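Please describe what follows:
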Amino acid sequence: MKKRYRLIRRGTRGGTYYCVDSQTGSRTSLGKISADEAEQIVQHKNTALRQPMLNLQIARAYLAGSDSGVTTRTWENALQTHLEMKTGANLKRWTTFSKDKAIKPLLPKILIETQPEELLNCVKNGTVSTNIFLRRLHNFCLDMGWIAWPIMPKRQWPVIRFKEKRGITLEEHTRIVEREHNPERKAFYKMAWHLGASQSDLASLKAEDVDWDNQVITFFRMKTKWRSVQPTQIRFGKEVESILQDLPKEGLLFPYLATVRAGDRATEFKQRCDGLGIKGVSLHSYRYAWAERAQVAGYPERFAQKALGHNSKAVHRAYARRAEVTLPPLEEYESKVIPFSPRPSKGKSAAG
């Protein structure tokens, strides 16, 4: 095995010895010491490297017996394999991640030779998305048996911290709608306010999804429809009815917006917010606003979960965590509710 460190001396008599790293080309001064001392230092540095490298070579030999690609498989190979397994919106997300500049130095690295510091540097130089997708790719490689053990333990991955999100306020929503001159977009924003549906679900609504007799709108969540989840059914009131009256009576309710990419719909909305000086909201903020309004109004949580398309209470509470609720006085409830009569203790009559 080629030695990584070698010894050189600058000058002749009384010169300074240097330890040269053959991989990086860097030189470290050893000071003015004797030749024997300098040689011993370089020898010890090579010896310290030899055992880990030897262990890696032994591990390669064993792994190659069951996987011929273990010595050549890179992160780029793993990412391409993972991309081939994705479809639809997931494929778009992973394709975007594959172009992330933060992971570029990692892609040519061989999987089993990767050090934890290299993953950590990618996460530090990237965004929240980099952290999420890189750990998913790492876990995919682990599940596939391409790495024998986690390169970086689960507890050592940096904590995922999302930016604070909030719901759009009624005043902001009103300003956006009043300034919007396109009838289809105006109706789209109004429906988002009343239904709390995601922008993709809302854009895919058809006239056939509207039950006028029972005043019910039915739609599948695009994110969960493949799981055979029951569709969301939500009754609509007079305001939604007046909006629907102006929309197509067959086919897509929003024919143009249904053909636009989700990112383009989001960009159009952001342009309108920027023009009005509204900051910190996106199309997704309509879902937060719906949940916050539902909590303030005392809307049963199980109904709100169904409307938002979530099964977990924790998810709905995350949506509504910014809602400000003023609790009514207990005496008010006591005066309206039939007083509770505690059961008598054992061995005593009700009268006693």
Q: What stands out?
A: The first helix runs from residue 35 to 64. The chain has 14 helices and six strands. The chain has three domains: 5-64, 75-155, 170-319. The radius of gyration is 31 Å.
